[in-house]
Amino acid sequence: MLETGYLAAFLVGLLGGVHCVGMCGGIVGVLGMGARPGIGVLLGYNLGRIASYTLAGALLGGIAALAASLADIRQAQQVLQIIAGLFMLAMGLYLGGWWFGLLKLERAGGLIWRHIQPTAQRLLPVRGAGQALLLGAVWGWLPCGLVYSVLIWSISSGGALEGGLLMLAFGLGTLPNLFAMGLVADKLRPFLQRVWVRRLAGGLVFAFGLVSIFRAL
């Protein structure tokens, strides 16, 4: 079931690509100071971004596992699995374009982002891969409903390693749209914007959420 969760997290990142381009596409566009960013700069930015996702997932997964060990393990894991299933339902509705309640998470995250944003701005313009790596690590905390929902999903993963791997899988799913904005993303965007594609992706994630809740109950 956990391996299936990694695949689902990857698909959420991949099929939520249009949202990712809207959130981070402008950042990628300025990495090269108005010119086409080099491979090293793009690689550094994306590695930093995904590293932040993975670290956050590991922290939440580890904290949840520690809390579960201090309480009734069976009941705690059951509750966390139900919560994760509910957020998978929300992700499915979000990807399918049926409900956008996850945007409230983005607004809540904006309170934290206000303190982080000045650091990100000081890293612009980017003049090398190392600086891009730092920018990506900071920008990985940009308020994003998709990122936050998978983070909450990672709470029920069972441990720090599992939570980190779940967020890593999600981050890798976002790569096609953000790593190759000028080439691959232009070809993927018309496909990802089709209503039936988004609804199919949302329906698959929604179904996985139902299965997760059923198994927990």
Q: What is the SS-derived class?
A: mainly alpha
Helix content: over 70%
Radius of gyration: 17 Å
Strand content: under 5%
The SSE string, one letter per element, is HHHHHHHHHH
Alpha-carbon distance between the two ends: 15 Å
Describe the protein in words.
The chain is mainly α and 217 residues long. The chain is built from ten helices and no strands. The radius of gyration is 17 Å and the shape is globular. 44% of the residues are buried. The mean pLDDT is 79.
What distinguishing features does this structure have?
mainly alpha
Produce the secondary structure layout.
Elements: H1 2-15, H2 17-30, H3 39-70, H4 73-96, H5 103-122, H6 129-139, H7 145-154, H8 160-179, H9 184-192, H10 195-216
Helix pairs in contact: 1-8, 1-10, 2-8, 3-4, 3-6, 3-7, 3-8, 4-7, 4-10, 5-6, 7-8, 8-9
Summary of the model, kept short:
By secondary structure, the protein is mainly α. The protein has helices at 2-15, 17-30, 39-70, 73-96, 103-122, 129-139, 145-154, 160-179, 184-192, 195-216. The mean pLDDT is 79.
